[in-house]
Amino acid sequence: MALPNIGVPQPGEDGTHISFCRLCEALCGLSVEVKDGRIAKIGPDREHPVSEGHMCVKGARMIDVVHDPDRLLHPLRRTGGPGEFERVSWDEALDDIAARLSAIVAEHGGEAVTAYLGNPASFATMHPAYMNGFLKALGADKKFNSMHTDTGAKNLVLELTYGNPYRYTFPDLEDCDFLIVIGGNPAVSHMSLISEPRALQKLDAIAARGASSLSIRGGPRPRGVTGTWPCDRTATSGC
Ligand code: SF4
Fold first, then answer.
1. What spacing in Å lies between the alpha carbon of 208 and ligand 1's midpoint?
2. Domain span holding position 227
3. How far is CA 17 from CA 30, 42, 46, 67, in A?
4. Is residue 221 domain-resident?
5. How far does the centroid of ligand 1 lie from the alpha carbon of residue 195, in Å?
6. 82 lies in some domain
7. What is the pLDDT of residue 227?
8. Most exposed of 75, 168, 183, 185 (fewest Cβ within 10 Å)?
């Protein structure tokens, strides 16, 4: 079904598409040039109200993800050892998966089934809804995503503190009088987990308005941080 014509290219059409990066929580706005049905260039969306033109190198190279020659575009069935597959139809693949999953659930219950949702699929609108509904229908009680391999310690602290591993807290970078950054380097991480694509500019602004920020970590002082308290392993108990 075609989307209403609001003066912008339809999905897949040539032209400039305003989109966003699905690789991390910063969700930077992107401007995507499509030519001859393929992405020709990805640049920052300079009009985006949050990322304000920020984009890291990963966002720019999403073009390589979309057009990777090894990208899986149709179902494959393993026929032997590593790299040995045959192409099958969607009906064959779905029937095969349904038969195998049914046998597993019948013998071991739905708890024997789980799924992993990685990036960039996690930030697509429908992927999480489809996965959650599918697992629920099977009676599965576990699911995994990139946070289990990336931010597990933070999610455990949130669970222990607030009773929910996804109940994130966000520092008030615009108005705080004193910011403490523990164990992080915004110059590298860009504070993506708190959805702050303009992290360094926000730290600069804290210093510019006369407020303070303190970094408790090893390594050099991040840009914009007014105080640093290097902590190495031997000094950890004093930090
Ligand atoms: S900071 Fe995150 S959301 Fe922004 S371009 Fe990089 S990977 Fe994408």
1. 26
2. 178-238
3. 8, 10, 13, 17
4. yes
5. 10
6. yes
7. 54
8. 183
